[in-house]
Design goal:
outer membrane lipoprotein receptor (LolB), chain A, about 325 residues, 7 helices, mainly beta
Length: about 325
C-alpha cells in the first residue's frame, strides 16, 4: 500500500495568466491508493520482532515452501530502494491500474491518469499537470523545496516493516512472500494509506520477488473487513531494464528545443545567511508550479527586499527571476 500522491490546492493558476504561472500547493502526501503492498514513509524508523522475520516453514508440495529461509521485511525494503534497484538494473518500470512510474539514473517519470505526467531531473522538473482542475493536462514546470520529491520512487515505499511475514515459497528464480498488516498496525496508519478504513480492517499482501536481488516483480494487496468481506485486489507489476516509456520520450523532446525554453529562477531568503537559489526551465509561454513543504507557505516577491508581492503579469516568453520567503 503506497502513500497518496500529493493533491495540490491551487493558490495561483498555472499558465499564462501569471507571468510565472506559479501555483502554490500544499506539501505532498506521497501515496497512491492504487499501489501494492502496505507502505509507510521511508524515513520512519520501524522495529520488526524476531518472530516476524525468521521463517521456519515446513516443506510442502510444489511450489515448495522455503524451509528455514530467513527473509525480513527490512531486507525487502532495502532491496527495493531506488539506489539498490539501480545498482542491479538499468531501469525499473512500475505499472498499477492508474499509475505508471519509470526510473533510471538520468531521470524519473510519473504518469498518474488524468492528474499529471512528469519527468524529474536534477536540474528541472517538467510535465503535464492537473487535468482534474482544467479538463486537460497543462504543460509546465515544478519548483519544490523538498529534495525527497526528486528522490522518491514508488518502490521505495512499497513495503513496511510493520508487515508480518506469514509464508515464503521458493519457486527457483522467484520467491513468493505472503504478509499481513494486522488491524493494530493498519489502524495506526490508516490516515496515510488512502483507503476507506473500517475498524478491525487488515491487509493481506503478496510479493513476487527475484530470488537473487529480492527486487519486487509483482505485488497484490487485499483490504479485508471484520465482517468477512474484502475489497478488490490492488496490483502492481514491475519490469526491469525496461525501455523509456513513450510519455517520457515526449516530455524529453519538449525540453530538447533549447531555443524555445525559458528559465525561471527563485531566490529564497535573499540577503540572509539562508539565501539559496534554484532554477527550472520550461517552454516559452509555460509556467511553474510551486510545492510548499508541509506547514509552510511560500510568499513570492518581485524584488530582493521582499517588499513588492509578485502577482503575475510578466512576459511568459522571457526568463524570470523572483524572490521568496516562507511564512
Amino acid at each position: 500500500m503506497k502513500r497518496r500522491e500529493f493533491n495540490c490546492k491551487k493558490l495561483m493558476v498555472l499558465g499564462a495568466a501569471l507571468c510565472l504561472g506559479l501555483t502554490a500547493c500544499g506539501a505532498k502526501t506521497a501515496a497512491e491508493s492504487q499501489g501494492s503492498g502496505a507502505s509507510q514513509e521511508a524515513t520512519e524508523p520501524q522495529t520488526v520482532q524476531e518472530s516476524q522475520t525468521v521463517q521456519e516453514i515446513e516443506t510442502a508440495e510444489e511450489p515448495q515452501e522455503a524451509a528455514g529461509m530467513q527473509i525480513t521485511m527490512e531486507q525487502v525494503i532495502e532491496a527495493n530502494s531506488t539506489e539498490k534497484l539501480l545498482s542491479h538494473y538499468h531501469s525499473a518500470y512500475e505499472v498499477s491500474p492508474t499509475m505508471r512510474r519509470y526510473v533510471e539514473t538520468e531521470f524519473r517519470y510519473y504518469n498518474e491518469d488524468g492528474v499529471k505526467e512528469e519527468i524529474q531531473m536534477p536540474d528541472t522538473v517538467y510535465g503535464l499537470y492537473d487535468g482534474q482542475y482544467w479538463g486537460q493536462l497543462t504543460p509546465g514546470g515544478v519548483w519544490n523545496s523538498d529534495s525527497e520529491y526528486y528522490a522518491y520512487f514508488g518502490l521505495d515505499h512499497e513495503a513496511t516493516a510493520l508487515e508480518e511475514i506469514e509464508k515464503i515459497e521458493d519457486n527457483g528464480d522467484t520467491l513468493m512472500l505472503y504478509t499481513v498488516l494486522q488491524p493494530d498496525s493498519l489502524s495506526a496508519k490508516k490516515d496515510t494509506l488512502g483507503i476507506d478504513y473500517r475498524d478491525g480492517d487488515w491487509i493481506e499482501c503478496s510479493y513476487k520477488l527475484d530470488s537473487e536481488t529480492l527486487a519486487i516483480l509483482e505485488t497484490e494487496n487485499v483490504q479485508c473487513h471484520a465482517d468477512g468481506t474484502k475489497e478488490e485486489p490492488s496490483t502492481v507489476t514491475v519490469t526491469y531494464d525496461a525501455p523509456r516509456p513513450e510519455g517520457a520520450l515526449a516530455l524529453l523532446e519538449r525540453l530538447s528545443d533549447k531555443q524555445n525554453l525559458r528559465t525561471i529562477t527563485l531566490i529564497l531568503n535573499p540577503g540572509t545567511e539562508k539565501e539559496s537559489s534554484d532554477s527550472v526551465y520550461v517552454q516559452k509561454g509555460e509556467g511553474v508550479m510551486l510545492i510548499n513543504p508541509e506547514g509552510k507557505t511560500l510568499e513570492v516577491f518581485k524584488d530582493s527586499a521582499c517588499t513588492e508581492p509578485y502577482t503575475g503579469g510578466a512576459d511568459t516568453n522571457k526568463d524570470l527571476t523572483i524572490y521568496g520567503r516562507f511564512e
